Amino acid sequence: MLLKDKVAVITGGAGINGLGFSTARMMASQGARVVILDLTQADPAAAAARLGEGHLGLVADVTDKSSCDAAAAAVLEKFGRIDILVNNAGITQPVKFLDITGKDYDRILDVSLRGTLYMSQAALPAMRKQRSGAIVCISSVSAQRGGGILGGPHYSAAKAGVLGLARAMAREFGAEGIRVNCVTPGLISTDINKNILSAEKKAEIAETIPLGRLGGPDDVAGVCVFLASDLSQYCTGITLDVNGGMLIH
Ligand code: NAD
After folding, report:
1. CA 105, 108, 111 angle in degrees (round to 5)?
2. Residue 141 CA, closest ligand 1 atom number
3. Which of 66, 93, 145, 160 would you call most buried, defined as having the most Cβ atoms within 10 angstroms of its Cβ?
């Protein structure tokens, strides 16, 4: 078991077809006690119940600092520590550069970027006390390519911002035993793109990917488990591409 008795908090983890829930399931199967955070309508308690006994689901909006702080306090009250944080919550919007409104910009950046800031700020004090912790931030291939698949330019900017924020955290907290790393998934079949990309478009994209297929949530979950576990104990500030070779150049 790679994560025996570790306490793992995953934001945006309630969607059962999503990367977050897949990561929750894989972390639980590796011995972690998992806390799923998500919005009320996503029903995080029901998602956590699907993992079996000993896990927790809490409503938390990552764009709201007091909500993040309350979630971290509830985790500490129940489990006494936070070993792993996966900043996974994110939303996207397919829109062209000139059409992005201020409201769109705030909405998209707030979940991925502000959310990564607030939830990390909420979890870090406990990790500092423990003098250990692993934070995994979910960015996107969109940050590296400038979008082009389904996210708009503001999504690319949010996910590129996540890379910078994560590296800065890695630099600041490394001496206290806290590692911070990023994952940049390529195109992964989840609810985020279900109604945006047609089957034909997906097949077309798959032909351009060296591994010849779109990713699945477990492809990303395995990498999150690696970055959360001691297997990656000398890795911090890194970005792992999980995209089937889409970016080979
Ligand atoms: P998803 O829609 O299943 O998951 C996103 C989750 O975030 C949902 O459960 C949603 O309820 C939650 N969420 C939204 N706003 C929130 C908020 N304010 N507070 C807390 N939770 C909130 O989609 P997914 O594909 O599993 O996405 C997970 C992450 O992976 C996202 O950050 C996404 O940008 C990123 N990503 C996805 C892909 C892909 O192709 N699917 C590729 C690259 C990156």
Report:
1. 135
2. 43
3. 160
